[in-house]
Specification:
Elements: E1 3-8, E2 15-20, E3 23-29, H1 41-54, H2 71-80, E4 89-90, H3 91-97, H4 104-112, E5 125-126, H5 141-148
Parallel strand pairs: 4-5
Antiparallel strand pairs: 1-2, 2-3
Helix pairs in contact: 3-4
Length: about 150
């Protein structure tokens, strides 16, 4: 298994992606140590798509991802990919979409364990009370991503 981490500069700070066998398996906001250059076609494609996203020219990412998680977590993460660009959903709404209306806390836990924020757009999930909720990338980045997508009020 070939595993490497590549870091890209963005308007919200560095975005680092861990790649394994040409698939992104983890994304985090922050430095990964020494930035490396994208070498594979998949890495170059992601770098281009990331730049387009932050330029407001891309609404989703096209790369297939390979992540580890429970069947429920994967179900939640797949549901997050269906939240349209520029829109939000609450944890309760995601639970209802999964036909598990009483599982909003479990949904919240799965969202919090999302290994690929941005590719799996967990920043589009907010609390029912109108507050922004948590984000693995940090409390300062989530409102910037929502603002980038034209979502006001956060």
């Amino acid at each position: 298994m070939k595993r490497r981490t590549i870091e890209w500069p963005t308007p919200v700070g560095p975005v680092s992606v861990v790649w394994e066998n040409n698939h992104p398996i983890e994304l985090f906001f922050g430095k990964a140590g020494q930035p490396s250059l994208a070498e594979t076609p998949e890495e170059k494609l992601f770098g281009r798509e990331l730049k387009e996203y932050f330029a407001g020219k891309r609404c989703s990412f096209s790369l297939p991802w390979a992540v580890q998680g429970t069947p429920f977590q994967k179900q939640v993460w797949e549901a997050l990919t269906k939240i349209p660009y520029g829109q939000t959903r609450t944890y309760s709404e995601v639970a209802k979409d999964l036909n598990r209306p009483k599982s909003q806390r479990a949904v919240g836990n799965a969202v919090g364990k999302n290994p690929l924020p941005l590719l799996i757009p967990c920043h589009r999930v907010v609390r029912s009370n109108g507050s922004i909720g948590g984000f693995s990338g940090g409390a300062m980045i989530k409102p910037k991503l929502l603002h980038l997508e034209g979502i006001a009020g956060f």
